[in-house]
Structure formats: C-alpha cells, structure tokens
Amino acid sequence: MSSNVRTKNTAVRLPTARGAARHAAAKRGTGSRGASRRAPLDRRRIAEEALRIVDADGLKQLSMRRLGAELGVEGMAIYHHFHDKAELLDGVLELLLEELEVPPEGSGTALERLRRLFEGTRAVAIRHPHAFLLLPTRRFNTARSFEYYERLLGLFRDAGFDVRESARFWRLLAGYVTGAGLAEIGSRAQQPDATPVRLENFSDPERFPLVTAIVPELRVGNLETIFAFGMDVIFDAMSARLRQRRKTRRR
C-alpha cells in the first residue's frame, strides 16, 4: 500500500532593499559600539550564515573571508570554530539534516513514515537548490549525521527489512530522491550559471515530434505527480517484498 502524503512548500518573504541594507548595517555594526551589540560567534550561527550565503549565491561563493565579513569579524575568527572549509560544509549539512525530521512513532506505519521522510528530501532540494548537493556527497562525516541515519535505518528495521534489504532499498530510495531533487533544480533553472529552460514551452513537431508530444507531461507543474509515481513504484515493491516474506513464514 502506498502513502500519498504530500509536502507543502512555504513561501519565503524577502526583505525590501532598504530593509536588507539596514539589517546588514546593524549586523556588521561600526566600531566598538557595533561590536558590543554583535551576538557572540558559535558553530551554529556561523553555519546558518554559511547556508544563507550558499542559498543566495552558490557553494563556490562561500569563503571564510566572505563569511567573516557577513558576520562582522575577521575571516580567521571562523577557524576558532571550524578547522577548515570542509568542516564548515559538514556543519551546513547538519542544518539540512535538521529539516529532514524522522516522523515520530504513532504517526503512521513504518513504511508511511519512511516515505514522508524521503519526500522531505525532495522538498529540501526545492528550498536549498545550491546546498542540496551536500546531502548526497557529504554523508557520514559527523556524529550528528550518524545519529540521523541511525534513526532512518530504524524505520527500515521497524518495517520488517533485514540488514541487506535495508541497505539495498535505502540506496534505491536515496538514488531516486537525489536524482529527482537535482531534476527539480535543473527544471526550475536554479543551478549556478543556469540558462533558460527551453523544454517548458518547446514545440518543434517537424524536427522533434516525440519531444514536442511529451513536453506537457514534463513541465514543472507536473514534477510532483511524476515524483509521486516513482515513489509509488518503489514502495509498492517494498510492500510486496514484505508480504511475500510473511507468506513464506506461514508455510
């Protein structure tokens, strides 16, 4: 049985140009008076500012110097909290993992909760298109990431899968959801140096009749439906595997 839970996106209200300038000036401060109002640095505040920079301008634009300037400190001050940029990126990854909360017990079957968790991964791609690449490329680097994956694997166990099946279905789901997330980013032209997406309104039936015919099905407005179809296929297969096991045990 497939779960049909859908993730709702919340719009982000952007500040006005004047408000943004006022906020930046207040954050940096001037002289000793500004320094006295400045909040003390800690790992979380630094990682949150790094994520804000990545969301705005991409991973390549994140540097210790720029991060320090945005926080109103010298770039070297960041190194008291993160040894290098690699460790900083791991800190940003931890913020993304916080958005992937494992649904609590009692909020559905283990499979339903597992599906909602992976649907949340696609939602992170939409909210953080520049930072999303950290999820598939920087796994298992920190204790907090291990804690998250321990809870995730607990859902596979609670559903009834053994270690080998858990590994295989986990990789299958992670690969599918990561690919879907990257497709979302590309289809919305949110990647760095993006060019206009021609497919959205493409039409050239003489030269490309098959592409022209499929365009209405592949538009951004249909991405959620296509994603749900893929999740149905995977979770139907997972449910069938569990049913077959129960039949085998009753023999």
In summary, what is this structure?
This protein has helices spanning 17-28, 31-37, 43-57, 64-71, 85-98, 110-127, 134-137, 143-159, 163-187, 209-218, 223-250. It is mostly helical.
Radius of gyration, in Å, reads 22 Å
Whole-number mean pLDDT: 82
Per DSSP, the total helix count is 11
Tell me the number of structural domains: 2
Give the helix level as a range of percent.
55-70%
CATH superfamily of the largest domain: Tetracycline Repressor, domain 2
Order of helices and strands: HHHHHHHHHHH
CATH topology grouping of the largest domain:
Tetracycline Repressor, domain 2
The structure class reads: mainly alpha
**Strand count:** 0
CATH architecture of the largest domain: Orthogonal Bundle
Measured between the Cα atoms of the first and last residue, the distance is 23 Å
What fraction of the residues are assigned to beta strands by DSSP?
under 5%
CATH class of the largest domain reads: Mainly Alpha
Account of the 3D structure:
The chain is built from eleven helices and no strands. It has 251 residues and is mainly α. It folds into two domains: 20-82, Orthogonal Bundle (Arc Repressor Mutant, subunit A); 102-250, Tetracycline Repressor, domain 2 (Orthogonal Bundle). The protein is flat. Residues 1-37 have low confidence and may be disordered.
